[in-house]
Amino acid sequence: MDQQQKEQFSQYLREYLNKNYSLNIQFENDTYKYLQTLSISEKRGIWTTIAQALQVTQLQVHDYFHNTWSKQFYTDIKEFKTQLENICCKQNLYLSDKTLVQLVSGIFKEQNKALNIHNKSLHQAINRCLQKIRKDNYKLSTKADYKNQKPLISQQNNDKLPIIKSSEDLSVQVSKVIQIQNCLHNNVIPRITSIQHQLQEPEKPQSRKPSAADLICFKDESLKQLDWQQFLNLM
C-alpha cells in the first residue's frame, strides 16, 4: 500500500462502520474501539470491502490494520525496555526462544495489567532483549577466557630465547642460522650419506664400522663458536 492508500484507509473504514452499523464515528480512536467489539468474520468482510475500494488485496488491508494502523492505540513498548530486560535476565536462557517469549510476555502482562499491549510488538521487543543479553554474556565469557588462558610461551622458556632488540641482533641470529645450514649441507649430510653407504656394503676383513665420532666430526672448526642452545631455541 502506498502513502495515499494508507491515508484513505481510515476514511473508508470509518465510512463503512457508519453506513453498515448506523454509527456516527468521527475519530480514529472511536473507530478502533468499535472494531474491538466485532467478530473475526465481521472484520473479514470489512477488509474485503476496503481492499476493493483501495484496489489492493484483502491480506494487505488486514496486515496494515494489525501491524501499522492499530499500533497508535497501544502502549509504546520501548518505554518498558528496562523492565523487559530485568525480567529476561532472571529467566533460564537455555530454554527455547518460543518458551522464553511466552514466559516473559506472561510475566510482563501480569505486572502491567492496565496497559493496552500489542502482542506482536511485545514479542519482538522480548526477542531483542534476549539477543542482547546473550550477546553481552558471550562477550563477558570470551573476555574471561582470554584473561585466564595460559601464555603460548612460558616465561621460563622465554628467558632462554635470544634477545633481539635491533636489526643488528636479528642479522647476527640469521647469520648463525645460515652458517649452520651451510655446514649441514657441506659436511654433515654428505658424511651421513657416506656412512649409510658403508653400512649397506658387505663387511670387509680389514674394514671397521664407523664410530659415533664420525657423525659429529665437523671439518668446519668455526662451528665450535656457535651458541648451540640459542640455535635450538630458534628451531
Q: Could you characterize the architecture of this molecule?
A:
It is elongated and about 120 Å long. The model is unreliable at about 150-160 and about 215-225 (pLDDT under 50). Among the domains are: about 5-75, no CATH class; about 75-145. By secondary structure, it is mainly alpha-helical. It is about 65% helix and about 0% strand. The two termini are about 70 Å apart.
Provide a compact summary of the structure:
By secondary structure, the protein is mainly α. Helix content is 67%, strand content 0%. The protein contains eleven helices and no strands.
Question: How is the secondary structure organized here?
Answer:
Layout: H1 3-20, H2 28-35, H3 40-54, H4 58-67, H5 81-89, H6 97-111, H7 119-148, H8 155-160, H9 167-200, H10 212-216, H11 228-234
Helix pairs in contact: 1-3, 3-4, 5-6, 5-7, 6-7
Beta-strand residue percentage: under 5%
Helix coverage percent: 55-70%
Q: What's the multimeric state?
A: single chain
Mind summarizing the main beta sheet?
Answer: none
Distance between the termini: 70 Å
Shape: elongated
Helical/strand content category: mainly alpha
Q: SSE order, as H and E?
A: HHHHHHHHHHH
Low-confidence stretches: 151-158, 215-224
Tags for this entry?
235 residues, mainly alpha, elongated
